[in-house]
Design brief:
Distance between the termini: 20 Å
Strand order of the largest sheet: 5-6-7-8-9-10-11-12
Structural class: alpha/beta
Shape: globular
Radius of gyration: 24 Å
Order of helices and strands: EEEEEHEHEHEHEHEHEHHEHHEEEEEEE
Strand content: 25-35%
Length: about 475
């Protein structure tokens, strides 16, 4: 038996084939189940799309100033810190009484386009003011102006929707956080209507596979007449309905007993704990109070609310506590999904045109599951010629829940061109759900295993065999 650092080769005399992979220990041959491989877990922190820490980039259109777009080089430089997402924040201060200028629309479009060049994605938010001081009022324009701005932005949101990870509702109130508002004051149930108009317009402006995040759970219930009975379930998740596309963001996470007004009561907490199993949740902290951001409590909350993304630059007090408590590294690698291939069993005689059955288990040790559409493919490579055969799975990786191990079975028909005595490799590929990004390895998911990942292709190698 030959043994390398990551790969083990097992000669199975009964099948006259060779299986190799990045394995934790020598593969065990089970006559009834075929070749069984166990894979080595990686503890490394590395880039993966649509998860992790983010850096905020802010562009303000105020006092006649037209800023330069967010640059691809700035976004790309953050990959060295394992950041693959940004919060792209745009202040439309100069346009509170009329249309967004063409110059501003061009800056916004180029800023979004830069994410494609950098191989990253954007959390997008628009607002008008970044202060709650009364001298800064009005904090937002009338609803008809906001709706007109969304109408103007719709073509850009459609064109660049592939790199929009999430759209935070914004527009209303200072920082777009729906407080300190001038034109969207809430006095009774009827006064929620203008806010709902804005959200409905955003849902229409974005493709149905993209989510809009609201600042609190209460807003969703009050605007859409929800009760806890209407909370997203496994059956209603990802069905394209408005409710399934409305998530949340918490910008005072683990900062006080109610996260500085984020929660109006236990109903809010119950709703978000359940809905964030299927919607993207993240934000930032706004305090360094160790009562709430100590490691024990932080991890409990990160798990309970299925935290996917976090501002790396705010609040510094929280990171001080995480470093002090020794959970900084754990929190970093567990933000969002983290998929570990535990084991795979291969049943086949490895002859041309025969069936190859792969039964494999994936454990998601991250805080959350995937929420945006993503493909699952098994790719067979002729190691000599490099020819690829792609098998698209019907399995939805978004169903690989946080903290759970999922067992799946795939049956692959081996090609008629299979040549006896040739070596073949089988890869698992988790590409972006959009065709425009499908072939870009920067948008494919890396499994948290040693020795499987190819940075060049974005594929995870799960076995090799010699055809009979």
């Amino acid at each position: 038996m030959k043994k390398s650092r990551f790969y083990y080769i097992y000669i199975a005399l009964a099948a006259l084939t060779v299986i190799s992979c990045g394995c934790k220990k020598t593969p065990v041959f089970v006559q009834e189940q075929g070749e069984v491989l166990t894979y080595e877990v990686s503890k490394a922190d590395f880039c993966n799309p649509e998860r992790g820490y983010y850096t905020q980039y802010t562009k303000k259109f105020a006092n006649g100033n037209v800023p330069s777009p967010i640059s691809a080089s700035a976004i790309k430089s953050k990959r060295s810190e394992n950041q693959t997402i940004t919060l792209s924040m745009f202040y439309l201060t100069d346009f509170m009484e009329g249309d967004i200028s063409e110059a501003a629309l061009n800056v916004i479009g180029e800023s979004l386009k830069a994410h494609r060049t950098a191989g990253s994605k954007a959390i997008v938010r628009f607002a008008y003011k970044d202060s709650y001081d009364e001298s800064s009022a009005p904090f937002d324009p009338a609803v008809d102006i906001v709706l007109r701005h969304i109408e103007q932005l719709k073509p850009l949101l459609q064109e660049y929707s592939d790199i929009i990870m999430l759209f935070q509702a914004g527009f209303i109130g200072s920082w777009g956080e729906w407080a300190f508002t001038t034109h969207f004051t809430i006095t009774d149930d009827a006064s929620y209507a203008p806010r709902k108009q804005v959200v409905d317009a955003l849902l229409d402006a974005l493709p149905k596979d993209r989510q809009v995040a609201l600042r609190t759970a209460t807003y969703k219930r009050r605007m859409y007449g929800m009760t806890l009975a209407d909370t997203i379930t496994a059956q209603t998740a990802f069905n394209g309905s408005d409710l399934s596309r409305l998530g949340g963001h918490n910008d005072c996470f683990i900062s006080s007993s109610n996260d500085v007004g984020t929660y109006s009561g236990n109903t809010d907490r119950i709703q978000w704990k359940h809905e964030t199993e299927y919607t993207l949740m993240g934000g930032e902290t706004c305090s360094g109070d160790a009562t709430y951001c100590n490691c024990t409590h932080s991890i409990e909350e990160l798990e309970a609310y299925h935290w996917t993304y976090q501002n790396r630059n705010y609040h510094s007090g929280t990171f001080t506590e995480w470093l002090k408590g020794g959970c900084m590294d754990e929190n970093s690698i567990r933000l969002g999904y983290r998929l570990v291939l535990k084991q795979a069993a291969f049943n086949s005689d490895f002859t041309a045109g025969s069936s190859l059955t792969v039964k494999y288990s994936i454990e998601n040790v991250g805080f959350s599951a995937l929420s945006n559409p993503r493909g699952l493919e098994f790719i067979l490579k002729d190691n000599e010629s490099g020819a690829l055969t792609v098998y698209k799975s019907e399995t939805d990786p978004r169903r690989w829940a946080a903290g759970k191990e999922s067992v799946n079975t795939e049956t692959i028909t081996l090609p008629e061109e299979l040549v006896a005595g040739k070596r073949y490799s089988l890869y698992m590929n988790l590409p972006d759900g959009r065709e425009s990004l499908h072939d870009n390895p920067l948008y494919s998911v890396r499994l948290a295993n040693e020795g499987l990942w190819s940075e060049k292709t974005g594929y995870n190698k799960i076995c090799e065999f010699i055809a009979k």
